[in-house]
Sequence to fold (744 residues):
Amino acid sequence: MLNRRTFLKTGAAALPLAASLDPAFALTPEKNAPASGPVPTLTPLPARLAPEDSASLSWQQKVRRVGQSNMTEHDPVVMNIEEWADYWHSAGANVVFVSVTGILAFYPSKVKFHRHGKFLNGRDFFGECTTAAKKRGMRVVARMSPDLNWPDALEAHPEWAMRYKDGSVQHNTEEPLLFRTCMFSTYMDDYVPAIMREVNSLYEVDCFYTNGWPPLGSLPECYCAICSKLAPSGTPAYWRAFNDRLFELWARYDAIAKEKKPDSFYFANLGGNVHAGPNLDRLGKTAVWFQGDNQGRTYDDPAIWGATLQARVCNAVLDGKFAANITAAYSTGVVRWRNGSKNPAEAQMWMNETLAGGLALYYHFIGSEDGLGEDRRWQKVGSDYFQWAAKHDAHLKPRRSIADIGVVMGQSTQLLYKGPSTAQARFYMRETTHGMYETLLRGRYAFDYVHEDRLDPERLSKYRALLLPNIAMLSDRQCRQISDYVQSGGSLMASFETSLYDENLQPRYDFGLADLLGISKAGDVVGTNGNAYYARIEHPNATPQHPILDGFSDTNWLPGSQNRIPLKPVADPILTVVPGFVQYPPELAYPPTSHTDEPAVVLRETGSSRIAYFPGDIERTFWLTGHGDLFHLLHNTLRWITRDERIVHVQGEGFIEMLAWETTPGYAVHLLNYTNPNADHCWMQSIYPLGPQTVSMKLPSGVKVNSASLLRAGQAIPFRIEDQTLRFTIPRVEDYEVAAITIG
Ligand SMILES: [Zn+2]
Fold:
């Protein structure tokens, strides 16, 4: 483990190197150090990676912009193919999606049950679009949809349908003629390969993609003859069967794609961020294109940071393989208009997040009535954005994240654990995720997600601290890996039911991490009926106060959480539980038991590691309430476990998300301005610009800076280097800014 306490005081002289590559920018070294206030200790950036050999990259790894006009049955008689191809080409798209489908054929398919669209009239619409795109130098993804089919197919193959418990067929709820196909049936073994081989025989496509399968963010529930023999949906055993079938089909489809040419491949619809359906560790080893079908905010995930959340999930498992995040230009959300533009500020922020998260841009609209859409307002938003981004590909394409905090992504917990017995709900873990995420954004931490199946020492060694926000399901092996991480000097913050279940969702008698966290379970989960519990400050007048209590004064207690696990007493607790009580009537709203020895937080130090455990679901309770005390307690605890060390420090006003990357030219620090009344509800309508943000980072020894520039503002900025610490100030952030550092 890298010992981050060991800093070399290099004594390097200030290096006000300020050469600009663009003579239009006259750069001068910053005259005065920016007002910095209490700056955390900066951890040096790691030694730079060896230069990338671009010859070793696959064609898709060089893709930066993807365009899709999703094709409707009506498009063959209304879409202007030349205008379509010209739009995406002039916008700078490297690739376009063209529909083959599977629900409706967009070419004269001879595959049985591949119904021709009723406006196709024998025309080769797919072939014409493919030719138009290829003529302009754009690659073509053959887009299929294996999730639905028509009554004639059902009559011939009743075994293809997904079934309800009573045996009845599952139909599409909007077009009830369409039935839902089962992924375990021969529909996937026979019908889908037949279409792929037919397309391979007729066209020069670059790869194949299936929309609509696998499902996003949840697991299928089917009671057909095959599925009835599987473990019930939603169980660990079902998830294993689902993954085995998924990756078996994935490999088969990929082999069919490669029958045509070796650099072709297959990929599928993905997304769902931390609650994705397929096992993301296996997926990361399989997929060469991660399709982030995460097109806009949803009722389930209402926060503005949905695209960066998806990007962090991709980065946890892809090891540099290609990923794109889709931005719907159309109106996503609870009420939809799939052929009408959304607020430009919202679409633009989603694209900002895609780039800030290190993914390729992907812009998407549905239907081309009247040539290329009755509503064409989306087009300028997309082409302006694509063209701006194209100028800065080198700075916008990351080599690796320089984050030094790892948040464990408990995918099993996200998919299979329903919450504690006192608060079971479909959204329980999503609320936990958003509470942790918002805490890290507000604290301006540089963090990555770390998949639960990737806790090996090589991956964890870059992290100063590992966070376990209610990672309920952990195997014995995973618990050992986390212990090893602490043994090697890493710090931890964990909460609530973390490690109380094994990988099969079997409850443990005590925490799997009991020894490491210094805790022992004293009873079952206690929920809230009325007034939630408080955390009593055991020594409110102590000086100095414990660092996790910094800034709390004039109170003997702090809010607890909605749910907690009672713990056995520990020595010298900082906070103890005041159990919840009646909130109405107010006559009874007082604590019958005002003081207990039940800990409300447990802190440990072992070697250079610091460990903090909260017995309550504190991250989720912060998300539900927005209580500033909960944020400050979490933030203070993060500062304590990391000994106030940061890899990047950004100081200034406002609510921002910060992501920082090592790039081929140098480094890129991305700031997303979420200071907006619509940060966690509905769409952004306007932008509220922020004032100065001062960035500090400590360069690896020997690295010199040539220039610093702002990619959105389109200007170079002064910078200053002292003792290998680079400092510069971004004077203003509209919705997004990227500080691009070019090193010498
Ligand atoms: Zn089935």
